[in-house]
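step: validate -> pass
step: tokenize input -> pass
step: predict -> running
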Amino acid sequence: MDFAPVLTEHESLDCRLPARQTVPVVVASPHSGSIYPASFLEQAAVPLSALRRAEDAFVDELFAAAPSLGMPFIAARFPRSYVDANREPYELDPAMFEGPLPRPLNHRTTRVAAGLGMIPRVAASGEAIYRGRVPSETIEHRLDSCWRPYHRTLSLLVEQTYSSFGGALLIDAHSMPSSASTLGTRDRSQQVDIVLGDNHGEACAPEFTAAAERWFRARGLRVLRNQPYAGGFTTQRYGRPALARHTLQIEINRSLYMDEARHERLPVVGVVARIMSGLLETMAEQARETLLPPRPLAAE
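step: predict -> pass
step: emit ->
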């Protein structure tokens, strides 16, 4: 039986801070949320199982070592099919809504055209999520209860990191369905394991992308850059290399660690989590080299 707990405002975020932040790195998981408001499920024309296919399931667990490594960690608890935190706040399809809109909407994007705005119109299967048009007051309600708290907190973590270290690296953690990882082919030998998105070099210094690619390739994983995922709103908003603020998006092939049909962890999930923990250590070292001033030589 499909079941989802009721989402309250206090449950919209999971923010875990280290006892002391020791490295200029912040880790975020905007799409691993799985708490579905009852009112949303009542509006839905598709079952919960269809909605859950949009989740970056268990990604928050794969990167859970971040606080123990001296890095702040934030994860959305609201599901992506309810609010997509990796979209602009008013990146929406006006045809979805009934009633006066709060302001003009940014509807001329490829993501909105695909039904994947800040409030998605379609599920991962392509089916319409809602039975009818959505009340327009839903827009501000979801922004206030989910989108804005997430980005206020993430912005604060990034700015505090910058203030403490003089620079910041944001790791934006995601997963991708195995169907997307084959890049349109049916040849499983061509499957991609990891996609690194740096907005085609605009979101972070090349040293960070190269360091992550070396780490994954050394563990036998197939890696692509920016194809098919170059990054979304988060890389565009927080990636400002010229201002010493860097963002790298990481997409992990779900078939590496979960049974996509059953929505269950595979026994190998612990191995993948250790790989991601090692990646964070690698990125922390790269951040020290790239962002922190060199230590003065000791006097002889």
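step: describe -> Confidence is low (pLDDT under 50) at residues 1-9.
step: cleanup -> pass
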